[in-house]
Design goal:
single chain; mainly beta; four-stranded antiparallel beta sheet; about 15% helix; globular; disordered N terminus; disordered C terminus; F-box-like_dom_sf
């Protein structure tokens, strides 16, 4: 039986298929569901026999496997959702960029991952926001995309690869009103992935009243279809629109100025953490980005020009925080920028502030990989080792931040799914 579920013994394919001859397809599916969440495992299983391939490529099995492991570490990056110019072309939804795309929107096959190429050949496919193209993307995690309606009174949890859409109302008044600053995150159900109910999720919503400077945290549970008000705290500023970062059981967001919102998913505590006073933020507030330190806790990057600082939080009490500067990196020496053929910068009015040379667009919290925008393209930088690779060509300079989307499954003809190779 062990040979039947191994991903490391391709030479025993015939024996594995023979040993499984007495098992029903349902039993095989239950076995295969417990494979390590890596795309190569399903691919190798599908090569054992026609029967194994039929089981692991069925729509029902792929939905269950994606529910359990779709956002697990090891799922490859497919591309990025964004909100830049999404009101532009009438009826078009251009808010997904597959990996490997250059500045013109074309995908160079030799340099493009198969994931990005497959999506690039399927514009308007399952990764499109579709009927809700006017909605604003505010979160992306575990194979789900979270959007907020133009009226700010409804939310949408979209599972692009599975074709699922669930609409939910925004938290109730008076603790939330459309005029309040707000942000939200989608996370798995309590206790992680539940094998019996893997489709369940939670939405954490934080609302900030600019007049009172009080922020309120709510949780929506998809099992009960209800919002619960959990905590209220006074902050020095209001929450801004940058994506959340999940580190352990704590969600973090940025405040508009000089602070971080911290919400504990277990204790439901809501706090403000002050950012280091010596960090760069003279070019733009969004040069500060939350990251995952190597030794745990919470970290922060600060970018000015080509200089990147890495900070870690050493101590925190209500109203005070102590940060340590761990590393300074010269990005023009690290990344291949000096000899790159850079496009000319856009012309700006004389009174306009110069655009930054480098921009931290997003974080892969599972791998602690930062996606860094430059004139030469977007680079994925592993912040512990500083290893990097290029994922996009020069894309629009006005795109401040993006939402990385990872999945094991790609569209096939716009209807089904196929296992990534």
């Amino acid at each position: 039986m062990g040979a039947a579920i191994s991903c490391c013994c391709p030479r025993r394919r015939r024996g594995a298929a023979h040993e499984a001859a007495g098992l029903t397809d349902d039993i095989l599916a239950e076995i295969f569901l417990r494979l390590p969440p890596h795309p190569s495992c399903l691919r190798r299983i599908s090569l054992v026999s026609r029967r194994f391939r039929r089981v692991v490529t069925s729509r029902r099995f792929l939905r269950r496997f994606s529910d359990l492991h779709g956002g697990a570490p090891g799922a490859p990056l497919v591309g990025f959702f964004h909100n830049h110019n999404h009101h532009g072309a009438a009826g078009a939804d251009n808010r997904f960029i597959p990996v490997g795309v250059d500045g013109t929107g074309h995908c160079h096959r030799r340099r493009c991952r198969r994931a990005g190429a497959a999506v690039a050949r399927n514009p308007g496919g399952v990764l499109a926001v579709g009927d809700d193209a006017e909605w604003h993307v505010i979160g992306c995690r575990g194979g789900r995309v979270l959007l907020l309606s133009p009226t700010r009174l409804r939310l949408l949890v979209l599972e692009p690869m599975l074709g699922r859409r669930q609409y939910i109302p925004a938290p109730p008044a008076p603790d939330y009103r459309p005029s309040y600053f707000s942000n939200a995150a989608v996370v798995s159900a309590a206790g992680g992935h539940d094998e019996l109910r893997p489709h369940l999720f939670r939405v954490v919503f934080v609302s900030s009243n600019a007049a009172t400077k009080r922020s309120t945290a709510f949780i929506y549970n998809s099992a009960t279809f209800r919002w619960t008000k959990l905590a209220t705290a006074e902050m020095s500023s209001v929450i801004d629109g940058r994506p959340s970062v999940l580190i352990g059981n704590i969600l973090y967001w940025h405040l508009i100025s000089h602070g971080i919102v911290s919400f504990n998913l277990e204790t439901h505590e809501l706090h403000e953490i002050l950012v280091p006073a010596d960090a760069f933020d003279d070019v733009h507030e969004a040069n500060l980005s939350i990251v995952v330190p190597k030794n745990g806790g919470i970290g922060l990057t600060a970018v000015s020009g080509y200089i990147l600082q890495l900070w870690t939080l050493r101590d925190y009490t209500h109203g005070a925080s102590t940060w340590d500067l761990r590393k300074i990196v010269m990005l023009d020496a690290l990344l291949p920028l000096r000899n790159a053929r850079l496009p000319p910068p856009p012309s700006l009015p004389a009174s306009a502030k110069p655009l930054p040379l480098v921009w931290f667009m997003a974080l892969d919290e599972e791998e602690n990989v930062g996606y860094v925008w430059t004139l030469a393209g977007v680079f994925a930088v592993q912040l512990d080792t500083m290893n990097y690779h290029k994922v996009l060509g020069p894309v629009c300079r006005g795109m401040q931040f993006v939402f990385p989307y990872k999945s094991f499954f790609l569209p096939q003809g716009g209807n089904g799914c196929k296992v990534m190779t």
